[in-house]
Every structure is written in structure tokens, then in C-alpha cells.
Design goal:
The structure holds two protein chains of two kinds. Chain A is built from one helix and eight strands. Chain A is mainly beta. Chain A has one domain: Immunoglobulin-like. The longest helix of chain A is centred in the N-terminal third of the chain and has 11 residues. The N terminus of chain A is likely disordered. Chain B is mostly beta strands. Chain B folds into two domains: 37 residues, no CATH class; 95 residues, Immunoglobulin-like, CATH 2.60.40.790. Chain B contains one helix and eight strands. The termini of chain B are far apart. Classes of the chains: A mainly beta, B mainly beta. Chains A and B meet through strand 1 and strand 5 of A and strand 1, strand 2, strand 5, strand 7 and strand 8 of B.
């Protein structure tokens, strides 16, 4: 019951900016960075991705099929949105970000710019 | 893994865990299964006609999810497999849950366990259990 009152209180004070922090995995290989984020309850339409300068913002609105008149008795997901912000490094090519979203899991692929790709330098013996 | 919250940097979950760990050092563990939070995160609500349970379990094939109702207890279990980190790649952040999970919710007495409905959409398992007809509040007309 305490959970329930906490939720309604937060909704009432219209703290629109408070959001849940979704768990992520970030994996880097030679070609770029792959980011996975868990955003359960977010539909494709409710997902917002933004790259501005060197900042990546992931946002999602949670929409659940809630029957009319439902009273919440226990809530672990206590806010209706997720948000997480990352700072990208310069060698990442933000023009070529690829995104897939499936069953609440977002997969982002951020390739490294061509000039930042690793090159092997041949050593010649003179 | 056992004490891991679904949300990273979840202050309340961390405080919960801290409290639990301190408690365990001073006395015998109060609950044999110990945890109250974990994967999947769950919301529970009720209407006069049904009990609604939401399990936030993203990226799982519906076949890998199991829902059981037995003796007034609902169990949600399954396994979450994540893509393996490829060779020569570095994992910088590793917060997402992986492995087998099981969570239990005790149900009120008046639910009809034979009419459980479960749907999986956008990574949320929504379980709806109707209450028995006889248990619905009835207005008695006064003559």
C-alpha cells in the first residue's frame, strides 16, 4: 500500500522529469560500440532516441494495458518512464547509429568513424 | 545475482540489501528465500473483478516463460539468455540480468485459478486472474 501512495503522490506533484534508470550492457569491439537497454513496457511509438552533439539520450514511456478501476497494491516499476543519458566519445560516428527494438530490448550500434578504425601498420625491414 | 535489483543504482533496493545484509549478520535470516526484489520486477494491482500482475521481463521468448498457479500461489519462472560478448570485445557496462529466474506471488483466496490469462507484449508479461463469481460484491435489495 505504501508503494501505491508513493506513486500517486509523485504523479500529483507533476514531477514530469523523474524517470527510472534502465539497466544497460555496453560492449565495445574494434568496429564500434553495441548498447543494449532493457525497457520493458515501452512500445515502439513510446521510444525516444536522440543524439545531440556528443550526448545520447534514451527515453521511453511505459504503457501498460491496465483495466479500468485498477488499484495498485505493489509497484516495483513505480514511474511511467525510463531515461538514461550517455556521453559519446569523439571517435564514434553518430550519423550511422543503428537501432533495433524488440520485446522491450533496445539494441543500438554506434560504429567508430572510419579514421578511428584500427589499422595495422606494416613494419618493413629496410 | 540473487540480490540484484532490476534497476541499477536503485537506492531503495541498495538500502534494502544493506539492511538485509546487516540483519543477516545479527540474526538468523527472516525469510528462507530472502529477497523481495529481483528479476523480473513486478507490479500487482486489483480490480473488483480480477487480480492483475505485471512482470517486467524484456527480451524473452514467450516459450521460455513459465506461469504456474498452484495452491493459491502464482509462480513466474524462466530463463533469460543474452547474446554472448564476442571475442576481442570489451564489456564496459554489464547490468542486465541473465540466467534463470523465479518469482512467487501469493494470491487472494477468491481468485479463479482455472481462468488465468497471460499475455506477453513489449517485454511485459501481463497475467490476469478473475475473481470467482460468488465472491463478487452483491447488492441485496431490501424489500
Amino acid at each position: 500500500m505504501t508503494d501505491n501512495t508513493a506513486v500517486t503522490k509523485q504523479a500529483e506533484t507533476s514531477r514530469n522529469d523523474s524517470a527510472l534508470l534502465p539497466p544497460v550492457d555496453v560492449i565495445e569491439d574494434a568496429g564500434g560500440i553495441t548498447l543494449y537497454a532493457d525497457l520493458p513496457g515501452v512500445s515502439k511509438e513510446g521510444l525516444g532516441l536522440q543524439v545531440e552533439a556528443d550526448t545520447l539520450t534514451i527515453e521511453g514511456e511505459i504503457t501498460l494495458a491496465v483495466p479500468e478501476g485498477m488499484e495498485s497494491s505493489h509497484a516495483e516499476v513505480s514511474l511511467p518512464r525510463y531515461r538514461r543519458v550517455f556521453t559519446l566519445s569523439k571517435e564514434l560516428d553518430t550519423e550511422k547509429v543503428g537501432a533495433e527494438f524488440n520485446q522491450g530490448v533496445l539494441k543500438l550500434r554506434i560504429p567508430k568513424a572510419a579514421h578511428a578504425q584500427p589499422r595495422k601498420i606494416e613494419v618493413r625491414v629496410a | 545475482m540473487l540480490y540484484r535489483s532490476f534497476f541499477p543504482r536503485d537506492l531503495f533496493a541498495d538500502l534494502d540489501r544493506l539492511q538485509r545484509e546487516m540483519q543477516q549478520n545479527f540474526e538468523i535470516s527472516p525469510s528462507i528465500r530472502g529477497l523481495t526484489r529481483g528479476f523480473p520486477a513486478m507490479n500487482v494491482g486489483s480490480t473488483p473483478k480480477s487480480v492483475e500482475i505485471y512482470a517486467f521481463a524484456p527480451g524473452i521468448a514467450p516459450e521460455a516463460l513459465e506461469v504456474h498457479v498452484e495452491k493459491g500461489v502464482l509462480a513466474v519462472a524462466g530463463e533469460r539468455k543474452l547474446e554472448a560478448v564476442p571475442d576481442k570485445a570489451t564489456a564496459h557496462i554489464d547490468e542486465r540480468f541473465t540466467g534463470r529466474f523465479r518469482r512467487i506471488v501469493s494470491l487472494p483466496d477468491d481468485v479463479d485459478a482455472t481462468a488465468v490469462e497471460a499475455r506477453y507484449r513489449d517485454g511485459v508479461l501481463h497475467i490476469s486472474i478473475p475473481r470467482k463469481e460468488a465472491a463478487q460484491p452483491q447488492r441485496i435489495s431490501i424489500q
